[in-house]
């Protein structure tokens, strides 16, 4: 069974994934793999540094600068996705073949059109005001938050495309209860 966890930026999908991992269900994190590719894959590095002006003084990819480029230019965003998404999907396919249950946290699951690969889609949903507070506390400006949210499908669209909705408007204990509910669902499908 292949399971995807998704949600808008700041919804708490990573916290949900960590709790799921602590409960014995490891979660493959697409964002971490994306970072790995940016930092460690020489072919990706070469392609990105040729197409984008995003090098730091010590010849690394400046992720903040790259993010500013792609969140302000849809064409540039698409160019970056054409480099990274095939590699990410290949890794998901390879990893999913190694176990009976494969769970991946995929932030832009629908936007990247990867949702058709998964058997079960879990959406972590949080009220917009809570999302904004979380992102402001991470150091993003109101404009950066607006831009990032605008580049994702509306949460209402994601709800229609998802199999299970996890509400994350409460505290960590509430989210743990949601994790336990999801584990029961997963185990019931085995």
Structure description:
The protein has 190 residues and is α/β, with parallel strands linked by helices. The protein has one domain (2-189): 3-Layer(aba) Sandwich (Rossmann fold), CATH 3.40.50. 56% of the residues lie in helices and 12% in strands. The chain is built from nine helices and five strands. The chain has helices spanning 13-22, 30-40, 42-51, 63-71, 74-96, 128-137, 142-150, 155-161, 172-189; strands spanning 2-7, 27-29, 102-105, 120-125, 164-167. It has a five-stranded parallel beta sheet with strand order 2-3-1-4-5, sandwiched between helices. The radius of gyration is 17 Å and the shape is globular. The N and C termini lie close together (8 Å). The relative contact order is 0.22. The model has no long low-confidence stretch (mean pLDDT 92).
Which key features would you list for this structure?
Rossmann fold, single chain, 12% strand, 190 residues, five-stranded parallel sheet, alpha/beta
Strand order of the largest sheet: 2-3-1-4-5
Distance between the termini: 8 Å
Low-confidence parts lasting 5 or more residues at pLDDT below 50? none
For CATH, the homologous superfamily is named as P-loop containing nucleotide triphosphate hydrolases
Radius of gyration equals 17 Å
CATH class: Alpha Beta
Instruction: Give the SSE string.
Output: EHEHHHHEEHHHEH
Number of domains: 1
> What is the 3D form?
globular
Number of strands: 5
CATH topology annotation: Rossmann fold
Q: What is the gist of this entry?
A:
This protein is of the alpha/beta class and 190 residues long. It has helices spanning 13-22, 30-40, 42-51, 63-71, 74-96, 128-137, 142-150, 155-161, 172-189; strands at residues 2-7, 27-29, 102-105, 120-125, 164-167.
